[in-house]
Design a protein that fits this description.
The complex is a heterodimer of chains A (232) and B (129).
Chain A lengths: L1 H21 L9 H19 L6 H23 L1 H8 L3 E5 L2 E2 L1 H6 L4 H10 L8 E6 L5 E5 L12 E5 L2 E2 L1 H6 L4 H10 L8 E6 L5 E5 L7 E4 L1 H8 L1
Antiparallel strand pairs in A: 1-2, 1-3, 3-4, 5-6, 5-7, 7-8, 8-9
Helix pairs in contact in A: 1-2, 1-3, 2-3, 3-4
Chain B lengths: L1 H46 L3 H22 L5 H19 L3 H23 L7
Helix pairs in contact in B: 1-2, 1-4, 2-3, 3-4
């Protein structure tokens, strides 16, 4: 019995350490490839805890293998946006300016009832008050509610450049040309797009720019007027 | 700091796994070859009717197997080890009874179990699926 107790303690500490190394804090943060290691590690450990015929290595080796695969996938996701999209998918805009996007919902196997459930969980009980709803890659729903009728309605922000790469979908959606944005960036002293950590189009029409650490991680806010001039 | 710890742990994990892929299989390969040789010696002596020499060879075989078993149990399923132990014990019983035919059958089973154990550890592709 003491052996079972000690095996349980050892594996608990091992899994705790492994999960800590993956850098995730809560289930809600998990991407599909993170979820696999969390679920499988628990199952693999349970086998060796209760069966003394099995050496602890029979649990430790597969858990380590899963950890290494998870680290490789995380590394590749960080390096390549295309790979990340392949593994995690992309956020889906389920409600755009108050209108449910039927086609997108069908693609995501997401029913109106699912949407209502998620909205209620976020204390939104009235579909009418939703301006934007986005189904995130980890399965959570982000909601942007409408303002009062006499106030300007909120608009979505879009990433135009992420980690030195153009976000083509957002550019297409906003009818922006990379060439024009490049000109704008030059005005702010940015010669290469690779130096940009991110460039975000904010809902009010202005832009926010941050350079990469190697370029000093400087942040620049590009006012609405200037952004509009070039982008129109 | 955390990134450094994680990177170090990842590198150590890779080295640890590589070690586990190589060292136990090399050890088992070497020990299995030795055990097969000792098993041959037992059979040769038994076939020639030299009972004391066969028993002595069997004693050496059991000792060598027990030494291997103690180490192999750290990384092998104990059930697999039991599958090797049973025919070895039977070999002793048939040796005492001077039943050479059954001794040969038990020796064949012992060798089969050894090769199964080796296949598990050396990564035989047939076991993958």
């Amino acid at each position: 019995m003491l052996i079972l107790f000690l095996r349980a303690v050892l594996l608990y500490l091992f899994i705790l350490f492994i999960l800590r190394m993956t850098g995730k804090r809560q289930i809600a943060d998990l991407q599909p490839f993170d979820l696999i290691i969390t679920m499988a590690a628990a199952d693999l450990a349970a086998t060796a805890i209760s069966d003394t015929d099995i050496p602890l290595l029979y649990s430790i080796v597969p858990i380590l293998a899963l950890y290494l695969v998870q680290q490789t996938v995380a590394f590749l996701s960080l390096r390549s946006r295309r790979f990340r999209t392949f593994v995690c998918g992309s956020p889906l805009l389920l409600v755009r300016e108050g209108v449910l996007q039927e086609g997108i919902m069908r693609e995501a196997n997401y029913t109106v009832a699912d949407l209502s459930d998620h909205l209620r969980a976020q204390q939104v009980f009235d579909m009418k008050s939703v301006q934007y709803a986005i189904l995130e890659t980890n399965g959570t729903l982000s909601v942007l509610e409408k303002q009062a009728a006499d106030q300007p309605q909120p608009k979505l922000s879009y990433m135009l450049i992420l980690d030195g790469e153009w976000c083509r979908t957002a550019l297409r959606h906003l009818h922006l040309q990379p060439k024009v944005l490049r000109e704008l960036l030059k005005r702010y002293g940015v010669k290469e797009i690779e130096d940009v950590f991110y460039l975000q189009y904010l809902g009010d029409g202005s832009l926010r720019l941050q350079l990469k650490e190697k370029r000093g991680a400087k942040i620049r806010d590009i006012p609405k007027k200037e952004a509009k001039e070039l982008c129109s | 700091m955390f990134v450094k710890v994680r990177r170090t742990f990842t590198v150590l994990s890779v080295l640890f796994l590589l070690g586990l892929f190589l060292l136990p299989s090399l050890y088992l390969r070497d020990r299995c070859a030795a055990l097969n040789g000792l098993c041959d010696a037992v059979l040769t002596d038994a076939r020639s009717g030299d009972g004391p020499a066969a028993r002595e060879a069997y004693g050496t075989l059991t000792e060598a197997y027990e030494a291997m078993r103690r180490k192999a149990e750290l990384f092998m399923d104990h059930q697999v080890m039991d599958d090797v132990t049973v025919p070895l014990v039977l070999m002793g019983v048939y040796l005492d009874a001077e039943d050479v035919v059954s001794l040969e059958a038990a020796a064949a089973e012992f060798r089969q179990a050894l090769s199964c154990m080796l296949a598990i550890e050396t990564g035989d592709i047939r076991l993958l699926l």
